[in-house]
Amino acid sequence: MRRTKQIDINRALALAGTFSFLCSCSKASLLPFLTLYFRQLGLSPAMTGVVVGTQHSITLLWSPLSALLCRHYNKRRVVIGCSLVLSALIALLLLVVPPTDVSGSLFCNTSDLGVEPNDSLAEELRVTMAGPRSWTTVHLKAPVSRPSRTNVSVTRSEASPRQNVAKEEPASSRNTSVLLSSVTIPTRTSSVLHSSINSSVEPLRRKRSEVISSKPEEKKQDSLDFLSSLKEMDVHTQLFFLLMFLVSAWEFVAAPLEWAVDDGLFEYLDFADAADRHSSRELWGLLGGACGVGVSGLLVSKLSCVLAAETPRSAAHFYTYAGLAGVALPAAVYHPLYLNRKRQRAGGLVKAVQLVQGSPRALLCALTVLLVGVAGSAVDNFLLWQMQEVGGSELHMGLTLSLGLLSQAAFPLFAGWVSKILSPGRVLVVGAASLGLQCFYYSFLWGPWAALPAQVLSCFSKGALWWAVRVHCEDLAVPGAERSVRRVYKSVALHLGSGVGSFTGGFAAQRFGVTWLFRGVAVGLMAWCVCLPVLQWRAPHQRRINYSRLLAADGSDAIDSESEQERDWLDKAMEDDRSNNNSRRTSH
To answer: Which residues cross the membrane (predicted)?
Structure first.
């Protein structure tokens, strides 16, 4: 007789919490700083928004499909391991991409450049967003004296387009550009590649003009025309398409990880009748994210400007991401997973979407979550840009984001107090209004530490909002579909809303600036917070019978109620019989 394997719930939860902590720590060490790295490479806000929006779109479409394939072929553990390894390797490939400009690629301070404060070279680092052609420009104040030519290591063929224009500028700006080329450490510039590409295009054109017209040769000529058109692109456009390809491949291998782990753990705990303890994984994820973003920011801020030859210190984020992914790999081998093929999937995504569509209040909640996702993408993509404008370093950025995650994780401590005062619908309004206040505050940053107080509002903007969404899911869903309805809301906020917000926010930041982007987002959220209570009051309130509570009740209660009804009927019949007998006796 086959013995049933004993399941240790505490051990399974400890392994799942460790894996969630390591994965969240790995992601937080890189993903919040990714848009800042794109800026250093030379991407404009619009290009950055398109790249990040494409990343969220791939996750939105590929995550449910990959989860279905993993369940069908029972390859969850293989997918988890491959996702960790391949995502780390592709992330390291982003370090091979060369920046488009030498001056805006490192963002070093005076101490990082090796310039003493007492030297005659008095510098002032200023990062501006002047227009579509100069997204990251560094201006140095230098003395009038021109340094010797021996210090200048940039030749005419290796000069960037901005240095070629220096002939038409006044003497002071020429001295500045020469000093910049002598001070900055040489990096891999794409101007050399661009000039070599342009020089290689001319022989191809002459060769194609001499080819005799024929059908196979015409096809070859068309392909050469297409390749030459790609080579003739601007350097920023080439960088954009290269990053788009790498980020898409990265997200394609990283997206199946979360759903595969979550499905396997839930079915494992559900098989052991401990599915109510599945939510502890989210808390460990928030704590891991706070630890990862804070430690990585502190680590990078303590490094020198350049780690090695031609390697900026921002590469430490990628190495930290890959290292933590490797540390999480042994935990993935022992992660509790289970595949219950006999379990009825009453909570499919299609049924969850139908439940949300059938309730007006659920639609209002989904629309609120969508707008919060749009606003949150503006904060995630461009808050570090705004902090960098006021002189913030990776230390300020890491501690600021870490405080926001810690405050979000602390909301369960106030959940009982909030539930007694406000209904879940009112909590949605408070959460959206808190995020609007945060965005409005971010538009007035005046120093590196100025963003730190606003992160305390994350306890109510994100923590309270997701608590209200969880309550809505419990009231709306049928038994077994609560987790699927919650996934619908998370997909709407974290991927659909963030994708739309990244596309639109990038073009808005390029057209109006990051400051006005935050103010516009704040005004939009505040306007929705005014309309949401009115719409909730007009929407019909549909109460559903909570069958899970009825099923959880003791069966003896039902038996007792039936026996009480039978006893009441019998007592009534006996009383009627006694009254009839008494009336007969009196008549006789």
So the answer is: 44-65, 77-97, 239-261, 282-300, 320-339, 360-379, 399-418, 425-444, 516-535
Q: How far apart are alpha carbons 200 and 231 in whole angstroms?
A: 9
- For the chain, the first-to-last Cα distance in angstroms comes to 77
Q: Kindly state the tokens that stand for 359.
A: 């309730």
Provide the 3-class DSSP secondary structure of residue 297: helix
Mean pLDDT, rounded, of the chain: 76
Amino acid at 57: S
Question: How distant, in Å, are the alpha carbons of 226, 426, 440, 460, 522 from that of 378?
Answer: 36, 24, 12, 18, 11
Would you put residue 150 in left (φ > 0), alpha (ψ -120 to 50) or beta?
alpha
Could you tell me which residues are beta bridge partners of residue 134? Answer: 131
Contact status, residue 343 vs residue 267, Cβ threshold 8 Å: yes
Secondary structure element (H or E) that encloses residue 525, with its range: helix 514-538
How large a percentage of the chain has pLDDT more than 70?
Answer: 66
Q: Name the CA dihedral angle for 284, 287, 289, 290, rounded to a multiple of 10 degrees.
A: 180
Tokens 């590649």, located at residue: 193
Rg of the chain over Cα atoms, rounded to whole angstroms, equals 31
In angstroms, the CA 57 to CA 539 distance is: 31
In terms of Cβ atoms closer than 10 Å to its own Cβ (0-12, 13-18, 19+), residue 117 is exposed
pLDDT in tens, 171-208: 444 443 333 333 333 333 333 334 443 444 444 444 44
CB atoms within 10 A of CB 113: 17
Cα–Cα distance measured from residue 125 to residue 313, given in angstroms and rounded to the nearest whole number: 17
Give the pTM. 0.74
Other beta carbons within 10 angstroms of residue 436's beta carbon come to: 25
Backbone torsion region of residue 143, taken as left when φ is above 0, otherwise alpha when ψ lies between -120 and 50, otherwise beta = beta
DSSP letters, 232-264, are TS-HHHHHHHHHHHHHHHHHHHHTHHHHHHHHH
**Domains (range + CATH), the chain:** 7-106+185-191+207-212+219-340 (1.20.1250), 349-545 (1.20.1250.20)
**Separation between Cα atoms, residue 402 and residue 423, nearest integer Å:** 29
**Residue 113 CA to its chain's centroid (Å):** 33
Total residue count of the chain as it appears in this document? 588
What's the pLDDT score for residue 221?
A: 55
Q: Token match 């350049």: residue?
A: 306
